[in-house]
Write a sequence for this structure.
């Protein structure tokens, strides 16, 4: 199975201490029935307490699964993730 | 000296005759049109005859302060400038922040209407009640920042407020702008070129008076309450932290960031154009508020780039980094900061400047602009050096290409020929904002029906994305169900656009920044009506406020109808209607002709406009009390 995606491709923006303006990428292990909300909660638990990620309310997070906002997924934050999905978390921004 | 807010005054300036006079505004007109942009639309209709040359003496410029500008109503310091656009030949309103509006208010005026053409360059100096036209011959040809310094030195007061055009406007570049309070740009539709055609280099003002609301105690209490709600809004915090360019990473991840002249919807390293990047990498050095604003989204940046030279400037805004950056395939933020500074000093709209250059880049890469026509510039996407050179040439109309692009994308495509019109991202002659509308149907409809052309600055339907509960509440209120907070849907888009265009219109007439009412939602039709009522001293309900805003939208439409615009002109750029989103999460999405026609049917029906022609019906005009105002257009019962 070498070469095929393993895990969840995680993209974080503006959530870690000192990395406000840069995309951080990592691979997160995929587990059965992992939801967007659980992934977010796990990330918060493991975060450096000084980082914005640790204390951010979920309402303020723009969460995207393969570029689609969670609000548009049928199960929202409870949507189940699949192997190879790309999940992006960033603080919501406003204004055009 | 305090002046009652209800007693509005219009200052007329006739540049041809060198005369000025003042007219009192009837209270019933203020109530009917809300003032600001609303009254300006009516006056433009009355003052400018059909077919008038936008760059000729018959056109007027109407600088309108908001009715609440100069008060403590939160973020109410904005002004509008209304005229006939040299880019489109149609109605044009631009909105601008800064402090000039409040200064004019405190000098004793609510509006300044500029008539005629001056025989020589002049600037208008308003010193409280004293009005003077001063020679600007020594200022002609100079950049906006230098002129700001020189005028302040001349009047001996560094605290005065100014609005200034640069060399681009003097050269009648079709997307020249008007720089207010040094760093705020009134940008679109070639507003600066109208100033240039009138040889009016600047407006400078010192105002030391004040304003008195009809019911001061209640007005100030309500203003304080709304200010508190605004400060607590997440949108305000985001705007303070990162400015409008904070939206870049989200747009890029969602595949809605127009890049490479809209041929792509994401760009690698797009986050380097973001407000977050400017902050974390140390470019951001300060923030500033427009008058009476507690949000302070306006920002200052500094760059010490070895390659591009030093920059100290305001912004850059979201549309600027998209247009001068991603649209041209450039993610070197230091180059974008330099391009932004050049545009501001030369006095050009960064949106249209970015678009004409990105159009030229695509046309060059496809071989329709030869190296000779490009005057030796290598115009491939991503070449920031060529972009900076071209900005200078456009502003001064230097060289074949510089002069051609100064006419805008539509005219340039007509001249170059071939299929180049298909990737000219314009409609009605105006370059579209850099938001990709193919996967956002309210945006698409709003852009198509926008009387000044396809941009987000007449109606921004941000709520359709439903990112916050407040946004979803708006959608529920307007459509009956928050399930319609989904930009991919075509149902209920007319209702969403109508509400937003009316909310936007009311905000601008009163002087509110629309970020407070259509990005954050703390300022809303209900409290706008209350603040108007307490300030002016006449009853105003939420419904009456929105009806007055609908009235202004209808006059703006009628202005265009009288110029010959019809349903066929309510269009999106060809690429937006014929080339599906090429990649990303919205791959394959499009607002094609059939879909747009359906959306237009919904919209015209909701407005009471004729479906075949889009002309407002007489019954509609009568209902709105406009049958005696909007004369000279075809009568449809």
């Amino acid at each position: 199975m070498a070469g095929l995606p393993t895990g969840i491709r995680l993209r974080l923006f503006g959530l870690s201490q000192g990395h406000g303006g840069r995309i951080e990428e990592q691979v997160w292990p995929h587990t059965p029935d992992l939801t967007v909300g659980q992934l977010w909660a796990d990330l918060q638990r493991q975060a450096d307490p000084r980082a914005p990620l640790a204390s951010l309310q979920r309402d303020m997070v723009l969460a995207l699964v393969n570029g689609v906002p969670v609000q548009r997924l049928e199960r929202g934050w409870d949507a189940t993730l699949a192997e190879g999905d790309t999940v992006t978390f960033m603080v919501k921004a406003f204004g055009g | 000296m305090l002046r009652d807010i209800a007693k509005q005054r219009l200052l007329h300036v006739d540049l041809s005759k060198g005369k000025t006079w003042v007219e009192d505004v009837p209270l019933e007109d203020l109530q009917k049109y809300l003032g600001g942009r609303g009254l300006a639309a009516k006056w433009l209709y009355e003052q400018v005859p059909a077919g008038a040359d936008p760059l000729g003496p018959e056109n007027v410029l109407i600088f309108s302060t908001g009715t609440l500008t100069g008060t403590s109503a939160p973020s109410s310091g904005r002004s509008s400038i209304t005229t006939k656009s040299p880019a489109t030949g149609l109605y044009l309103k631009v909105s601008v922040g800064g402090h000039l509006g409040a200064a004019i208010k405190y000098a004793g005026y609510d509006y300044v209407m500029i008539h005629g053409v001056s025989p020589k360059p002049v600037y208008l100096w308003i010193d409280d009640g004293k009005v003077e036209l001063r020679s600007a011959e020594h200022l002609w040809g100079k950049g906006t920042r230098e002129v700001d310094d020189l005028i302040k030195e001349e009047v001996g007061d560094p605290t005065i407020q100014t609005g200034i055009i640069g060399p681009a406007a003097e050269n009648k570049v079709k997307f020249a702008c008007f720089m207010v309070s040094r760093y705020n740009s009134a940008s679109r539709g070639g507003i600066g070129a109208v100033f240039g055609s009138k040889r009016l280099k600047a407006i400078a003002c010192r105002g030391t008076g004040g304003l008195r609301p009809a019911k001061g105690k209640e007005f100030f209490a309500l203003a304080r309450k709304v200010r508190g709600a605004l400060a607590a809004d997440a949108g305000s915090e985001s705007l303070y932290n990162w400015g409008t360019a904070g939206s870049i990473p989200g747009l890029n991840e969602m595949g809605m960031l127009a890049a490479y002249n809209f041929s792509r919807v994401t760009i690698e390293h797009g986050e380097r154009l973001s407000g977050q990047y400017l902050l974390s990498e140390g470019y951001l050095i300060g923030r500033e508020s427009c008058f009476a604003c507690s949000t302070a989204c306006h920002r200052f940046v500094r760059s010490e780039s070895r390659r591009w030279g030093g920059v100290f400037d305001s912004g850059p805004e979201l549309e600027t980094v998209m247009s001068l950056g991603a649209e041209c395939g450039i993610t070197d933020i230091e180059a974008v900061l330099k391009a932004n500074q050049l545009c501001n000093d030369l006095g050009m709209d960064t949106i249209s400047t970015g678009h004409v250059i990105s159009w030229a880049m695509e046309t060059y890469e496809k071989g329709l602009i030869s190296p000779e026509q490009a005057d030796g510039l290598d115009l491939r996407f991503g070449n920031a050096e060529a972009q900076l050179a071209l900005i200078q040439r456009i502003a001064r109309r230097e060289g074949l290409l510089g002069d051609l692009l100064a006419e805008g994308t539509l005219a340039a495509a007509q001249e170059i020929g071939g299929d180049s019109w298909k990737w000219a991202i314009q409609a009605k002659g105006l370059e579209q904002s850099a938001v990709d509308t193919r996967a956002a149907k309210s945006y698409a409809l709003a852009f198509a029906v926008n009387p000044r052309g396809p941009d987000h600055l007449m109606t921004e339907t941000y709520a359709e994305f439903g990112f916050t509960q407040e946004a979803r509440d708006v959608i529920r209120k307007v459509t009956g169900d928050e399930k319609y907070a989904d930009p991919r849907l075509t149902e209920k888009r007319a209702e969403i656009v109508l509400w937003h265009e009316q909310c936007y219109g009311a905000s601008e007439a009163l002087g509110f920044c629309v970020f407070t009412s259509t990005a954050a939602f703390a300022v809303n039709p209900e409290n706008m009506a209350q603040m108007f009522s307490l300030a002016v001293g006449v009853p105003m309900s939420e419904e009456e406020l929105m009806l007055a805003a609908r009235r202004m939208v209808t006059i703006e439409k009628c202005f265009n109808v009288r110029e010959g615009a019809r349903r066929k002109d309510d269009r999106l750029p060809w690429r937006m209607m014929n080339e599906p989103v090429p990649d990303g999460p919205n791959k394959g999405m499009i607002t094609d002709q059939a879909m747009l026609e359906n959306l237009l049917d919904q919209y015209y029906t909701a407005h009471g406009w004729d479906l075949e022609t889009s002309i407002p019906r007489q019954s509609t005009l009568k209902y709105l009390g406009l049958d005696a105002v909007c004369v000279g257009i075809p009568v449809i019962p």
Chain B touches chain A through 46 residues (CB under 8 Å). The radius of gyration of chain B is 23 Å. The mean pLDDT of chain B is 97. Chain B has three domains: 2-212, 234-418, 441-623.
